[in-house]
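Hello, quick one for you while I still have it in my head. No rush at all, and the record is pasted right below.
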Amino acid sequence: MDTVRKVFSGARAGQKIVANVYRPRMRPHADGARRVTLLLTHANGFHKELWEPTLQRLFAHRSGRWTIEEAIALDGYNHGDSAVANRASIAGETYVPWFLTARDILAVLSELGGGRGKRAVVGIGHSWGASSLLLAELLSPLSFAGIIATDPILYTKPTGLAEVAAITLKRRTEWASESAAREYFAGHPFFGAWDPRIRDLYAAHGLEASGPGAATRILKCRPENEAAVYRGALYASPFATNNLWRIQCPTAFLTGETSHPASPQHIADITRDMADCTHMVMPGAGHLLLHENPDGTADCCAKLLDGFAPKLLLPAANL
């Protein structure tokens, strides 16, 4: 697939949202297939490139129901390349309401423009990124033709946020070189469970030089910014959870069988009043299913897109 870097304007003046725009090198156009644009958002502490193995497999998928025109993967404003671009304005963050990232998503959709009636925009997000997509749809109904929420963080009353933030602030942030970081990730129980492709992408795109010409590498998403996002779940996550019934576009939830923050039973309970909702469980997967099994994630998304396809004829209303 071909990749082009694009910088969007965030919802707040001066804030940048860095994205990768992916396009398949060969675009099959089956008669009657719905043209789809994917908008991808990532989990807290990670970055847009981690979607690439899943996208590769989705682009290779052959369906007579839908075809992907392009996929746009975003870095949250304080993550990945967006964090590098916004470094001065995100220093010292302690609390990040998730409504801010939802507004950024809507700003990107607005800037994309021109797709109304021609192309359906389907949001696919993971964890915090999935919750942010749902919040964006709640703030501006029918901005999406469909949403696939992959293990979203949805609580009626979040607890333990201070403890999670405190653990995050203790995370290692710096390595002598990228190769040293790769060795560390490969041997660490948390990262070692990931697909090797995801681990390589995390090292290649999640780190930056600690200074001009320095070999030392440091996380682009600083622990203080990641911790601020965890604290930001306090009001936004319950708002999304309690208002899921308002979402009008077709919505699918993909959850890991052993996920702790988004157990299959929990998702089934909170989505039962949604008008158009599908729930799929990935066997053997935990919360980080995208990291552990990107190919399986792609296969599940392809099946969910098959289900969406007949419903994607209406344009996204707010593009």
In short: Residues 98-112 form the longest helix (15 residues). The CA atoms of residues 235 and 304 lie 29 Å apart. DSSP finds 14 helices and eleven strands in the chain.
